[in-house]
Amino acid sequence: MKATSPAVSAIPTANGAPGISWVPIAAFCFLWSSAFAAAKIAVRDCPPLTLLTIRFLIAGALMLGIAAAGRQGKWPSGRDLASLILLGVLNNALYLGLSWTGMTTVSSAFTAVLISTNPLLIGVLAGPVLGDRLSWRKLAGLCLGLAGVALVLRSRLSGMQEDIHGTLLVTGGLVALVAGTLLYKLLKPTAGLWASTGIQSLAGAVALLPFALMSESLGDARLTASLAWSMAYMIVAVSMGGYYLWFMILGRASATSASALHFLMPPLGLLFGWLVLREPVSWLDLLGIVPIAFGIWLTTRKAV
């Protein structure tokens, strides 16, 4: 998607030219951050790994059906197919499987802060791995974003004694997300977005299936209306819409600039928690959006 004017350009493309408007960026942030509230509703009635496996399986099948029906882009084969399977294991199975499992013994706030360090890690690693230069401006922006996340979640972090096993699981999910982001830029799959996102989703489902069967029971799932609605939302809006937009943005912007958007997820997640689950949010929580917004602006603005 090409920007029609400087006014709608938000993130420069990887080569520095303006190229991504606020529309897909805003849609991605909305969809991605809403996933937490939907997941919190769904896991009340279905074990997490079973939930993720079913979600990825249905979403993957639907996306491949769209790709086949629309004949959009080339279908992957050989190296591209192997790359997408690896990326699916990292971006879907390991990232969400480990972080969701870890969140059963550590707080969601701690999980959010830990996962939100991924833009900082990507900014540091993008230089040696991808050849992207991390300027002082970008580093300052990343640090500001992380400070804003900590401010948003300060009351939920104070005095917490987090479980070490859960912390290690969430850290594993963080490593998988960072690796998946960097490898996507490094491997540069050439297949159409619907096909590539669908294959990644199916790969995540296949990787999670044996662990779901070993550690969970399908009999623990309860077929409720809330489970059906939240599952449908996560399949269509998050797995299909959110992941499609994420890989589109990641394909056109630098890894550091694209990943900086993840700083918005904790405050937006709190907003959805307030709207959907009636979870309390204070004005100090909202104050953290200021350094986050400024940090993203520093990280993504075109150098002059």
Number of DSSP strands?
2
**Most strands sheet:** 2 strands, antiparallel
C-alpha Rg (nearest Å): 19 Å
Mean of all residue-level pLDDT scores: 80
- Name the structural class: mainly alpha
Overall body shape: globular
Main sheet strand line-up? 1-2
Model regions low in confidence, pLDDT < 50 over at least 5 residues: 1-9
Span of the ends, CA to CA: 23 Å
SS summary, helix count: 14
Describe the structure.
The chain is globular and about 45 Å long. Helices cover 72% and strands 3% of the residues. Helix 1 packs antiparallel against helix 10, helix 2 crosses helix 10 (225-252) and helix 3 packs across helix 9 (193-215). The chain is built from 14 helices and 2 strands. It has a two-stranded antiparallel ribbon with strand order 1-2.
Offer a concise description of the structure.
The protein is an all-alpha fold.
Question: Which descriptors would you attach to this protein?
Answer:
304 residues; 14 helices
Please outline the helices and strands.
Elements: E1 9-12, E2 18-21, H1 22-42, H2 48-70, H3 79-102, H4 108-115, H5 118-130, H6 136-152, H7 154-157, H8 164-187, H9 193-215, H10 225-252, H11 255-259, H12 265-277, H13 283-287, H14 289-300
Helix pairs in contact: 1-10, 1-12, 2-3, 2-9, 2-10, 3-8, 3-9, 5-6, 5-8, 6-14, 9-10
